[in-house]
Every structure is written in structure tokens, then in C-alpha cells.
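Troubleshooting entry. The earlier prediction with zinc ion gave an output that would not parse, so I re-checked the input for stray whitespace and re-submitted. Clean input:
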Amino acid sequence: MRVWGSDIFGKEWEDFWILLPGVPARTDRGFLGFCSVCLFRLQGELCLFDTGSYADRSLLLQQLGELRIDPIDIKYLMLSHLHYDHCLNLSLFPRAAVFLSRKDFVYARRVLAGEVVDSAVADNAVELLDRRDCTFVDEEMDLFGEVSLKVFPGHTPGGLVAVLRRNVRVALCGDVVKNACELVNRKPSMVTTDYDVAVRSMEKLLEVADHFIPGHDSPFSCRDGEIVLLSEMSIKISADLDLSKRTPLSMELRRGINYGIAFSFSL
Ligand SMILES: [Zn+2]
């Protein structure tokens, strides 16, 4: 489940992990909402990018436990935006200083006041940030010469992207780019601004880094306009349907690093 940065970006990324890989899947009941949750060291301190939602909570804690990390020791927390699938586990990290875009904070307040409709903004988004050490990013902010925080409109009015600069530049995209499919097809979904603005943000984002970790997909690079996948993606869905068996029926969707699509089914 956990992806090590050094496996895909080189040995300078030993202190970078995709704790929970993003999943570009939905059902006829709705969006599954499993986002990419990344952890890395910034000036020697632990920094988390996005938190996932309640459905991710036990696996997130398990992943931190396996790295022998106490959530209380996370010093910085970057929120790409305030949709429920990215921010609901904020309360697990009570000592973390939070970074988010000012535009999205104002937007969430407007949604919760009933001025704008956005069914994905967490009902308690503003409450979660109350009495927290928050830094609001307007357009761009540099952190210690190691990370650039940049704001891109599209999915939300001000999606926060973190660009980590080491031997290569890696962008943690949030939902400015949710998945490789929507990028390749220039077809952003769930857009809150102009559609063209969202497409332009995706294109601009490609210029600021070498590798990309989308909000809901596995990492990729972009070379001469071509998307190159850097790790496989899989999701297994189980359902308790068969009354005669103790094991659930399950289905696995998988995309290999060479774009091989596989589907397996177990009864
Ligand atoms: Zn999302």
C-alpha cells in the first residue's frame, strides 16, 4: 500500500512516502473519495500533505504506526482544499501548523453559510481549523527554500499545490489534477470555476515540476507532453453478498505501470 519516494524518485527521497495512494474510482452510489496522502520531512520535521477522510483513518494510523510515527509529532500539515475527502482527519494531528489557501478558506465559509453550493466541502471544515495555527497562502509561498506552495483555481477557487524541490521537482497536486485520465483528456470534473480556468491550471501545473502526485491517482511524469506512469494503481472492492459463504465477493481493478488494465473477480 505505502509507496516509498526513493523507489520512484531516487535515493534523495528516502524520507518521502505516499502513505495512502489516491484512487480514481467512483461507484453508481457516488465518488469513493480516496485521496493521495503524502508524508515527508521538511527541515528534519514531519510534514503531511492532506489527511484523507474517516474511511481512511484506520489505515492512515496503521501506516504511521509502521513507520513508528506518533501523529502528535507531525509538525506541518498542508491541506490541498477543504473537501471532506482531504481534510477530515485534521483532528488526528493537533500540534501541526496548518497551511491552506486563503481563497479556499473563504470559499468554505461561503459554502457553509449557504451562499454557494458545494456538497463536498466538509460541514466542520471551519470548526476543524478553529484555534489552529493556520497560515493562509494567497498566491505563492516558499518554505525553507525546499517547498513552494502555489495556488491554482479550478476544482476549487484556490487549490493548494506543494512543489518539493530536491534533485527533481515533485508536485503534490491535490485535486488541481485529480487523475492522469482527466489530464490527458483535458477533461476536469467537479469544477467550481470556469472549465477553461481549470484546464489552464492543469497545464500550468505541468510546467512547475518534473513528477506529479495527483489527488486521486498514482504518480506520473510528463515528458514531451506524454504521461509516464511511475507506479501501478489498484483498488479491491468487496461486498457481503453470498449468504452461503463466509468470505465476501470481491473485485479488483488494476492499472500496471505500462498502462496494462486488469480486472479480476473472486467469488
Ligand atoms: Zn478529492
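This one parsed fine. The two ends are 23 Å apart (CA to CA).
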